[in-house]
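Tutorial, part two.
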Amino acid sequence: MSKLTAKKVENALPRKKEYKLHDGGGLFLRIRPSGAKSWLFSFSLPNDSKLIRMTLGSLKDISLKEARARLPELHDQVSQGIDPRHGRAAKQAENTSAITMQKLFNDWIEFVKLAGEITPTWIKRHEDRWRLHLRKKLGNLFAKDVTRAHLSGALDAMARKGIKEETRKALTTLNLMLDYGLTRHSIESNPARMLKPKDFAASANRSRDRVLALAELKMLWQILDKTIYLKIKNEYKPAMNPVISTAIKLLILTGARRTEVAAMRWDELKLENGIWLLPANRTKNRQAHTIYLSQIVINLINDLNNLTGQSEFVFDNGEGHIHPDSLTSAINRLTKVPDDPKSMKRASTAPLSDMKPFTVHDIRRSAATAWGEYLKVQPHVIEQMLNHQPLNKLVATYQRATYAEEQKAAWLAWGEMVEHQIAKEPNNIIPINRAANDR
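Running the prediction step on this input gives:
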């Protein structure tokens, strides 16, 4: 039965020699001559009569109530033959070696960068996702203590913002970093594996199937050749500049990804041979890729020389290459009606707003579809032109044919088709230098 009270503990005065007050259950309050007070636990292990005492902590840190609350766990360890002193040392060592979620994320990102298995673009997206949506709620938690409830709280907060796709990708980020921690024995299990995107209404979107017909590509091209003014933050500004409009045209002509076009470098181009050599570190699948350039592509790129020829990037915006999102934003400005569509004489609201909405990636799909539909290019050649990896691993391992001649013929034929059926229109071609002066 407990003997001490909070008042007795507080009023226990120091003596010339150290003494102890017994509370019961092996718990003692030790009072030193200096007046310092601390808690002791006295015990004997089974089949051993030796009396052992261990310090639980200072009265300043542990109250009488807290000291009593620790007794059941201590008695349980003793009954199992476990010396509580060793158990506490193991716990302290465990806590010392424990890492936070922020440290785990940093270690994982460093490993991913060294491994070189994903592109810098995807690494940055993981970093941005962590910084913007996950770090605040999870960063300071010990990784070993993180539960499904912690992860669900962070993902629910994202879902409430309506960012469905980012929520789904955030779960992927968490799974990858926690799997890394699992293999490094930083955690005992990965709680993210029990969560699914549907738990946060973030299931993957249905695959898009939007394809622009030739007539729609022609409408887009014509708009790219004109100076369209849109109201942006109460100012009427050109919706497009020659750098952006040419980049979008190259998306149509090459079927390349927006990241590949946006960061195109002059030293990747062999214009005299009609070749664009994409290095492995600039492609999604980490495979170097050759794109053959038709004459219309070469002309468009040469026209940019006066604007960006002094830069290392073909599509330079004055601060380095244009951001891939700039191409997405440009398409959005052309296709989506602004909140305030009031026009002025020189202003236009979303000139393609009557067209069925489309994205930058839909342009890539449209080019690939046209290659097959109008040029009768074989599917395996189109896959090579898109730099897709074969889904069949056996084919990927043993089938090394690139069909270079077939690819070249397809790109050149597509360039001619674009030039004569999409780009050609009386009075709609504006020389790029003149457009630059109009800005």
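The longest strand covers residues 37-43. In part three we will examine how such features are distributed along the chain.
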